[in-house]
Amino acid sequence: MKEHEFKKRTPPLVRPVQREPRLGGHGATPGETAAPGTAVHPLTGVPVVRPVRRDRLSWHQFTPEQDRYAKMPFRRCGRSGLKLPAISLGAWETFGGYVGPELARGCIFRAFNLGITHFDLANMYGSPAGKAETIVGRTLREMPRDEMCVSTKAGFSMFPGPYGEGASRKSLLANLEQSLQRLGISYVDIFYSHRTDLSTPLEETFGAFEQMVRQGKTLYVGLSNYPAPIVAEAGRLAREMRLPLIAEQVGYSMLRREIERDVIGAARDAGMGIVAFSPLEQGLLTAKYLDHVPEGSRAAKTWSESQRASIPALRGKLRQLNDLAKSRGQTLPQMAIAWTLRQPEVATALIGASEIDQLEENAKAVEKLNFSEDELTRIDSILAG
Predict the structure, then answer these.
(1) pLDDT of residue 56 exceeding 60
(2) If 137 and its partner were Cys, which of 184, 229, 254, 376 is the partner (CB 3.0–4.6 Å)?
(3) Highest mean pLDDT among 94-98, 100-104, 261-265
(4) What is the C-alpha to C-alpha distance for residues 371 and 385, in angstroms, rounded to an integer?
(5) In this structure, is residue 260 part of a structural domain?
(6) What pLDDT is stored for residue 24 in this prediction?
(7) Is 242 inside a domain boundary?
(8) 312: exposed, middle or buried (C-beta count within 10 Å: 0-12, 13-18, 19+)?
(9) The pTM is what?
């Protein structure tokens, strides 16, 4: 783009930044060796192949902040050595969905500078399916790959025919390959089987996991939405196969506590950490629905009529929880995230974001993670009422 065109089409103070392609990218020459400091694949040692190209027309330009690790605590994921930020950022329904690519870009950049280094996706996130990986991948490629943990999942229907879903070797390997292409990276840090597939033996699913790890296309593997009995069996099988099975991703919030009965214990015994998605129950555990459903909210945009009809019955509890959060010096979302993290088995709380200021406020949950016994008893009483 000519300089005068750039000035005409971009806001003030935004300047183009260009980088040389990395090894293996467009413009690389045969036999070229990696320059000092070039990112390489952690298992194969092969230099990262995708060149970094900044979106020069974006309002949001990435600049890493020096204090980005100052406030965010990190927790081990199960018995593995992988540490995840207490709060992670997911793309379900938001990026590639009702949140546009420019805002998604700003949220991801800001999350990283808040210490949120784990970004979670799935192959079918976005509209159309796969769009979330494409949008997030374009942004992540402008950031330091070695400082990020990127995860994705496969299992729900992604493309026509029997191989577009499930947990067979054929399906998982094909879908991981497609995810890597959309993301524009050579490996993910965690790859999940997104749902239980009773038509596929667990041994076959884990055989696919083993092949992915051996090929260097994922560093760790996990399960998502699997019930406790299968989690227990998975732990036994993973030990036999020496497979890095480290996480069970499952919904957990004040309003959804079923995993406390058996899944948390099964995951702990299997050496897996809990990656808790929807700790705000898709926005219900916020102040926005205390009086009505605002225009532009997730409930107004994406929920069904029956889902919206369930809100009035919860308002009494939500108002009491909001009052308790205020007495703790927190917002309701901050308290709800902190409550989820009170469980030592929970490695990270996986949140979404539709605004940068919303992300900044919710990240402050880590400033007060402890609860008194009286506060926990009060929360249980409110939820049981």
Answers:
(1) no
(2) 184
(3) 261-265
(4) 20
(5) yes
(6) 42
(7) yes
(8) exposed
(9) 0.84
Tens of pLDDT, residues 8-23: 444 555 454 444 444 4
CA–CA gap between residue 162 and residue 166 (Å, rounded): 8
User: Token digits for 59?
Assistant: 């309002």
Q: Residue 118 in contact with residue 88, Cβ under 8 Å?
A: yes
Tell me the C-alpha distance between 173 and 191, whole Å.
11
Distances (CA, A) of 76 to 82, 86, 127, 262, 341: 6, 10, 33, 21, 13
Length in residues, the chain? 385
Is the distance from CB of 267 to CB of 248 less than 8 angstroms?
yes
Contact of 146 with 112, CB cutoff 8 Å: no
CB of 189 closer than 8 Å to CB of 220: yes
222 in a structural domain: yes
| Residue type for position 363 | A
Joined tokens for residue 345: 């088995």
CATH assignment at residue 75: 3.20.20.100
Q: Could you tell me the two tokens for 5?
A: 């065109």
The token pair at 189 is: 């840090």
Residue 377 placed within a domain: no
Q: What is the pLDDT of residue 92?
A: 87
**For residue 127, how many other CB atoms are within 10 A of its CB?**
12
- Containing H/E element for 7? helix 3-9
| Signed CA dihedral, 50, 56, 61, 64: sign only | positive
Span between the terminal Cα atoms of the chain, in Å: 62
Q: What are phi and psi of 300, to 5 degrees?
A: -70, -35
Residue with tokens 């690790």: 69
The per-residue pLDDT for 22 is 42
Domain that holds residue 274: 71-286+344-367
The H-assigned helical ranges of the chain are 3-9, 101-113, 131-140, 169-183, 202-214, 228-241, 263-269, 298-302, 305-309, 311-327, 332-340, 356-363, 373-384
Number of domains in the chain: 1
8 Å CB contact between 188 and 216: no
pLDDT in the model for residue 165: 96
- List, for residues 347-368, the tens digit of each pLDDT value: 999 999 989 999 999 999 999 9
In this predicted model, what pLDDT tens digit does every residue of 291-344 receive, in sequence order?
Answer: 777 676 666 666 677 777 777 888 889 999 999 999 999 999 999 999 999 999
**What pLDDT shows up at residue 61?**
83
